[in-house]
Prior knowledge:
Radius of gyration: 65 Å
Number of helices: 10
Bound molecules: adenosine-5'-diphosphate
Amino acid sequence: MNVRRLRVAHWFALVVGLLLAVAAIAIATGVAGLDDLTARRLTLLDRIDPADAASLRLSGALVDEESGVRGFVIARREDFLEPYHRGRVTEQEALGDLHRLATIAELDQVQEDTAAVRRAAETWRSEYAEPAVAAARSGGEPPSADLGKQRFDAVRTALRAQQRDVDIARRAARKALDDAAADVKRLFIGSGVLIILAVLVAAFTLRQVVIRPIARLARGVRRVATGDFQEPLVASGPRELYDLGSDVDGMRARIAAEVTALRDAERALIEQARELQRSNQELEQFAYVASHDLQEPLRKVASFTQMLQRRYSGQLDERADRYIEFAVDGAKRMQELINDLLDFSRVGRTTRPHEPVDCDDLVEEALRRLAARVEETGGEVVVDGDLPVVMGDAGLLTAVFQNLISNGLKFRGDAPPRIEIAAERAGGAWRFSVTDNGIGIDDEYAERIFVIFQRLHTRDAYEGTGIGLAMCRKIVEYHGGRIWLAPAEAGRGARFDFTLPAAERGGPQTATEETPVHEHA
Ligand code: ADP
């Protein structure tokens, strides 16, 4: 198994395990060291020191015994024997203690010394003390004082040997206690160093296998977030991080592919738009050139057929007069259409900067131009409040109001026409509405009516060429706005809505020089 592919939990368990093992070792060795120290302290305090004291007691007791016997022999008074008797009791106790302590402390030399002291004391007592006491009591001959001194010197020699050996044992125990204390100190220092090392190893391991891969992944993700999708993310670290890194890299690769595809599509779209624009320009150019160039021959046809009509009317037969009338009418109609087409194709051809224009002024101008029509139809045009100031070309925008009001007057119902104009703010733009009380328009024609030369009625029913709304759409879109037919509503005629950029927010910076208003007459 690849060690670096372990899970975070496994790494955590490993590191915690290491720390626990080190702690356990430190505690175990510490406890063992302390135990050893305690044992050595007990040996010194509870065995060697009491043995030392017992040795001193033994020595004192024997000296008491010797001086008691010596006093009794001289004074022959029983009370002088008191130290002898007390000394014997103390001697027995001290010998017992020494034997017991030397055994449990395993002090073989002291054991032997004690046996030697016991033997020497027994010899002194049996060979000198007891015969001397008996002789003093009975008034017999006591053993010689030299013998007493000799035997007691042997006791002193054995006592000194014993005290020396107890002292040696005490020193050894003291040294062992000091050594144990030093060992404990070393153990604590060693454990401390070991624990610090273990913590360092744990920290380093966690940093290498968890923290650094996280930081590396975070850097990679941040790079992707800032939009660099091309450079792959290198996944590393424990299994979860490796999987996460691989997933993020998969995501990055998919995003990179999508971005490339989107860019390709965008490029294709831009290319298409350019192509469309180019063919649109060509078409407009064609419409403009055709209508412009057709004007001249048409004018000739119109004027000569009109001349024919004026000069020869009534001189030919009736059928010829009718034919001439058709020709005059057709030529006039064609002139109208060609003029409209020319006006239409002029929108946006030449440019001039847009500027703030007050729509109240535009409507006023449109109404001035339509005054005769309003009067003739008995109509009424109402402006709802003040109209706003927008950015645009005054001439073109006047044409929009004029076309819409003119349609409202033209497509009237039985009642006298009434047209309402209103505007309301819609974000960075103004939305205008022109509502009439005329015959209205079915929703299904909402798009068709904006197509050039498309009409819903015959010329006999309503005059017109079908260019007015197409012109409105071209002008409004040229200003960056939109125009549409509002859904039909019972009880009202048609309502046209359109948007124009508000003055303070600016707008497209160009407009045409001509004023292509279609006169519906
Ligand atoms: P024109 O007015 O010369 O016919 P337009 O482009 O202005 O051309 O209008 C296209 C058609 O839309 C009109 O023929 C008419 O059928 C319909 N239309 C336009 N405005 C209105 C209106 N206010 N009420 C009813 N129908 C309308």
